[in-house]
Amino acid sequence: MRSLFFFILIFISIGVAAAEIKLPPLHHPVGVKLAQGMEPPEAFVLGRQSELICDTCHGVSDLEKIPLEEVDSSVEDFLLQGPYDSLTTFCYLCHEKQGMERFNVHLMFDQGGRLDEQRCLYCHQESPEPEQVTDRSQLKFRLPLENLCLGCHLKTPHLNTLAHQVEPSEEIREAMKKAEEKHQIILPLDSRKRVTCVTCHTPHEQGVIDSDRAGGKQVADHPVNEGIGYRDDPWGGVYLEDKKVRLAGLQQTLDKTIELPAYRRIEKEILLRLPAKDGSLCQACHQFQE
Ligand code: HEC
Ligand code: HEC
Ligand code: HEC
Ligand code: HEC
Ligand code: HEC
Ligand code: HEC
Hints:
Layout: H1 2-19, H2 54-57, H3 87-91, H4 117-120, H5 161-164, H6 170-183, H7 197-200, E1 219-220, E2 229-231, H8 236-254, E3 265-268, E4 270-272, H9 280-283
Antiparallel strand pairs: 1-4, 2-3
């Protein structure tokens, strides 16, 4: 499955050069014709030669004319007929589920339990030797931190991701510093000093980075290949009430209305720097009134 994603990389380099339309890094190929048996929904119009054009997948007119940094991807039909619950739901509108199983880059050990260096190269320019990395600022990535996850994950994989993509206030930065010391963790910000995916998540499977190091402290209740575990919980309602109270406190602090999502209780957490289910992660930056 790894090859699929390399294909995307190759396609973009070719695609961008040929079409001279600026596409974001890791973008899906355009200008290609439907493969045999592919039957996108009717609304997904094709170009004159039955090729993929911007309007095939996007509901924003003249998208190709909008400068990249001005594109608003938060509109509902940015992906046509969206929003979708996950990126793969969208992919399966054209691709067969079979053979499209997603390559889980977070599984970083091979069958023999050795680090698979190829995996590192999705994000790192060179495979780091974990013991030899003493200064994180020396690491070179293939994309700015804030874009590393987006070829494979949605920009809004869950509630509040966009709201978090901001530069924290001084008060929050202070809280972060304290939390880093108290829990001996890192809460890295992106190239523009904003909260980003890896502020809360570590991309590394447990064991890649020594757990004695701040960068290697992480929650791993579960094997990575099993994903996050949810539970329909008879106590769900009680939990929700509890969360409501705490969120109400947060709401006061932020002076904003916060919508509660239909809440599924998280039972097993992975790839997080601190547990969220008991509130520790959120409390690294927010104060709840208890
Ligand atoms: C096969 C479907 C498909 C086609 C065709 C397509 N796109 Fe996309 N595009 C996507 C997907 C999927 C994303 C990622 C959306 C996400 O992660 O939320 C995306 C993301 C983007 C983004 C990034 C927006 C952002 O800020 O995150 C831009 C810009 C974009 N596309 C422009 C274009 C342009 C211009 C064309 C035509 C030349 C085009 N796309 C054709 C599927 C497509
Ligand atoms: C509107 C239909 C459509 C949608 C939606 C779509 N694709 Fe594609 N995709 C195509 C077509 C057409 C091609 C080129 C023909 C081919 O290679 O099968 C292609 C090619 C690819 C390739 C190149 C490798 C290969 O098999 O040749 C990858 C990887 C890929 N798509 C992944 C995705 C992912 C991931 C998504 C969801 C984000 C997605 N596609 C959504 C139509 C689509
Ligand atoms: C999905 C992207 C991604 C992949 C894949 C990835 N890394 Fe990283 N890595 C990052 C990011 C982002 C950082 C900086 C933030 C951090 O330290 O967690 C980082 C940091 C590191 C650090 C410094 C950690 C510290 O705090 O001292 C080491 C060592 C490292 N990576 C090793 C590896 C190795 C070895 C692999 C392959 C087995 C790998 N990484 C795969 C994204 C990735
Ligand atoms: C403020 C902290 C925070 C930030 C920032 C954040 N996440 Fe999350 N993420 C979480 C928590 C907590 C969960 C646990 C499950 C939940 O509550 O949905 C999670 C869950 C996930 C999941 C699993 C969703 C599921 O239902 O299986 C994915 C994938 C994910 N995050 C990716 C990302 C990506 C990609 C970004 C950046 C665009 C990001 N996260 C930014 C805290 C964060
Ligand atoms: C090469 C593709 C790829 C890249 C790049 C990538 N991921 Fe993932 N990630 C996956 C796949 C595949 C899964 C397994 C679950 C799924 O299919 O969504 C996953 C799972 C996760 C999960 C756990 C959700 C679960 O329930 O399994 C989190 C959290 C997550 N990724 C965060 C990140 C963050 C943060 C980054 C960027 C630093 C990132 N990912 C980069 C492919 C990728
Ligand atoms: C690394 C720091 C950090 C962590 C961890 C964090 N947040 Fe935030 N959060 C922020 C910042 C920064 C904002 C932007 C508003 C501000 O500056 O107060 C924000 C805003 C919010 C908002 C308001 C959104 C809006 O619409 O304005 C909510 C709700 C929220 N966070 C909930 C959570 C929850 C729940 C968690 C735990 C899963 C969490 N946060 C973890 C830093 C963080």
